[in-house]
Amino acid sequence: MPRHTHIVKVHHLSLAFPTRHEPNPEPVLKDLDFGIRDGEILGLIGNSGSGKTMTAMAIAGLLPEGAVITEGSIKFAGEDLTAMKPAKRRQMLGSNIGVIFQEPSTALDPLMKIGTNLDEILLTHGMKDKAKRRERVLEMLGTCGFTEPEEIYSRYPHQLSGGQRQRVLIAGAALLEPRLLICDEPTSSLDTVTTIQILNLLKEICHKMHMTVLFISHDLSAVRNFCDRVMVMRGGEIVDKDTTEDMLLHPRSGYTAELLTNARLDTRTLGLERATVDYSKSPVLVAKDITARYDNSSSDVLKGTGFEIYPHEMLGLIGSSGCGKTTLVKTILGLMPHGGTIINDKQTGAVFQDPVSCLNPAHTIEWHLLEPLRAAGIKLTKEERKTRVESALQDVGLTSEYLSRRPRQLSGGQRQRIAIAMSLILEPSLIVADEPFSSLDSSSASEILKLLTDINRERGTSFLLITHNIHIVRQICPRVIVMDKGSVCEEGLTSEVLSAPQSEAARKLLHAESVLHGEN
């Protein structure tokens, strides 16, 4: 295949979702015209709904059902992808164009071991020799930083940490050495240490295999550290493009400047106020000597973990991928067998990282808000239910018009608000918020951050905030605990822990944060 200055050339591309009732709808992508140079790393940023992922999926040939390219073309190494027959286009995916998705748990079959997941890629693309496929998979797992690839090969996805699963996806995408690698939010659910590792790994593999990269992210720190050029999208259009340094230091459009401001999640800009915590009062939750392990595992994931959360407190929990944070959340919520003692004084609510996986696409928002009441066995009259539901919506800044909508009709930030409302409707004393911002763009994350701090201050609801964003912890959490290898390795006042960390785990997280933000 001949080399071209631009390996990808998108020429005046428009895309829409026509229906029988609306044959000429407003385009979702509008007259996109850009190129991706051979060997470069091009960043694509913008708020949710701006068209970033739709643009990438149009290039990959993975558009959702009903999507129609109404104008323009997409050329890959001189070939027009839009004019290509479906069978040939499918063969391009993997062999010439690789894709790494945001959430590895949805991209890997949970019923198949890692080796089988990756083996299928090679088998689909014609490698018949089983021994050679195994050898190739193990080689790529080693290339992607696994020191014991045989062990990873035989594990199931749920037995790996988020960072490990993301490395597996990178291995899968690189198996066939594609010329273009599309990365759709590959680091959004990862802590700072793992993010740096994944970005360095991607750089190393892309350089070694001479791959071009289209990198979609709402994490501007990752974009700053990884990309050569950046394009900004808004409402299906490209509104700005420049070198990464010029774009992020000297934005030319007001929209780009707004994205940069929102990405800082600054308490002064957002008007965030902390609740006052009285540590002389009895805790709302006490965890003592918590141990837990997964089925078929020979070692504990949690090893004698313990801590307290006080009334009105926003307690931060940080730690690298695989340290046991999510396992701890599962034990607190009663979703996993464990040893030790957990004492709650009242109802505990939960808000998870990905609201899409928490909402049933077949049901309305009203059904979702009533479900916690039904599950808790709370008997209310029709009027009482109506009042409770509308009050919960109002608490999260939404109106009753959303009750008849379904999750697919809401933005990412709105879905997260519904997830929060589902917790609030039971009036909990504590809400466990597990990475509630990481799947959101900077504007939506700012809104959700302000909402949580308002609930904390105005209702007195305590929070256990699990996040890899140390900047957020520094601003809104008076205390923080640091986990490493299944135990709490450090805890104390946030100002003290983050300014003079005593544990190696905390020092690594803070060093990675400084690297990501260009302070080192």
Molecular structure report:
The chain has 520 residues and is an alpha/beta fold. The protein has 21 helices and 19 strands. The chain has a six-stranded mixed sheet, sandwiched between helices. Strands 15-16-17-13-18-19 form a six-stranded mixed sheet, with helices on both faces. A hairpin with a 2-residue loop joins strand 9 and strand 10. Helix 11 crosses helix 18, helix 15 packs parallel to helix 17 and helix 17 packs parallel to helix 18. The chain is globular, with a radius of gyration of 24 Å. The model has no long low-confidence stretch (mean pLDDT 88).
In short:
The chain is of the alpha/beta class and 520 residues long.
List keywords for this structure.
520 residues
Return the structural class: alpha/beta
Number of strands: 19
How does the overall form come out from the CA principal axes?
globular
Radius of gyration: 24 Å
List the helices and strands and how they pair.
Blueprint: E1 6-16, E2 29-37, E3 41-45, H1 52-60, E4 68-76, E5 79-80, H2 86-95, E6 97-100, H3 104-107, H4 114-124, H5 130-143, H6 149-153, H7 162-174, E7 180-184, H8 192-209, E8 212-216, H9 220-226, E9 229-234, E10 237-243, H10 244-249, H11 254-263, H12 267-270, E11 285-292, E12 302-309, E13 314-318, H13 325-332, E14 339-344, E15 348-351, H14 355-358, H15 365-375, H16 382-395, H17 412-424, E16 430-434, H18 442-459, E17 462-466, H19 470-476, E18 479-484, E19 487-493, H20 494-497, H21 504-516
